[in-house]
Amino acid sequence: MTVAPELSCVLPCLNEGDHLAASLATIAKSIEDAGVTYELIVIDDGSSDETWRILEGESETRKELRAVRLSRRFGKEFALCAGVERARGRALLVMDADLQHPPSLIPAMVAAWRDEGYEVVEARKEQRGDETLMTAVGSRLFYGLMRRLSGFDLHGASDFQLLDRRVIDAWASMPERNVFFRGMSEWLGFRRKEIPFKVDPRVGGTTSWSPLGLARLAVTGITAFSSAPIHVLTVMGAVFFAFALILGVQTFYNWLSGQAEQGFTTVIVLVLLVGSSILMGLGVIGLYISRIYDEVKGRPRYVIADELGSPKNRERTQGSSDAT
Predict the structure, then answer these.
(1) 191/244 same-domain check
(2) Strands, DSSP E only, in 117-222?
């Protein structure tokens, strides 16, 4: 029976073949400096470049490497799911393969988990690095909404986290298909420690996140952790009802006193205002219904096309569960 490593490092990647081999070497060196046994689990999220070929070559020389190629691009969140579900270690480290998450922090994160007893060690961004003004404003708006609607402060949060086995098992018990990794980690709780870091420049390639992709992730995060937008519709309905009562009383008074004026300007404005509000409300309701539809279908989060690594390592050993 294969002995499970102390640390499983999950690296989702997309079109990162030009620097992947160097990144794996850098990350492996930092983990070795932390003094733990480990495995590298690389998830190729449907790359169209040489990423998989590089992984095939690396697997011949790196016995600790396990690689999974998804049948198409499913998105980073689902690629993370594929890695988390295959992690065999006593702890799980999630980070990006482009080294924007500095590997130099790994020894400190491992020490906080192993020596200080923290179950979640999260690297928080104290400086976001190079990003467009639109991205910066959108991120601030999203985190502000998340804090107000769900109560979770994710400002500066990242996927660069180390999770204890208890947290991994708890995370794996959540079968939802609208996945927001850092939000789910925050929701779980446990003993947590934050380590600040500055986002380093990418070692190669360009970001795969488009403004539309970031907007979809933001919508997923908000709808997965808060039903407040639905309640906002109720509040809007109450406000319009009160406004309608006041306007109705005023109109009836003017009619009784003979001061009623001809014209439909007010009526037209009210119809447009109420109509647009109703359409917006239906859109919000439809968004939540679509999330329910995704969950009810029960489709798998991802589909695997190829997998590299020892056959014994492709299935999680039951050594830990048998011992308990």
Answers:
(1) no
(2) 120-127, 161-164, 192-198
Q: Are residues 50 and 114 part of one domain?
A: yes
Q: Which domain holds residue 143?
A: 7-205+301-311
Please state, in angstroms and as integers, the Cα–Cα distance from residue 206 to each residue in 127, 170, 209, following that order. 19, 34, 9
**The model's pTM:** 0.66
**Together in a domain, 83 and 135:** yes
* Total tally of structural domains belonging to the chain: 2
Residue-wise pLDDT tens for the chain (324 aa)? Answer: 367 888 999 999 888 888 888 889 999 999 998 889 999 999 998 888 888 898 988 888 888 899 999 988 888 888 888 888 888 888 999 988 888 888 989 999 999 998 888 899 988 877 655 556 666 666 666 666 666 666 666 666 778 889 999 888 888 888 777 777 777 778 788 888 888 888 766 665 555 555 665 566 666 666 666 666 766 766 777 777 677 667 667 766 666 676 655 555 566 666 767 776 777 777 777 777 777 777 777 778 888 888 887 544 444 333 333 333
| 87 and 23, same domain (yes or no) | yes
Rounded Cα distance between 130 and 140, Å, is 15
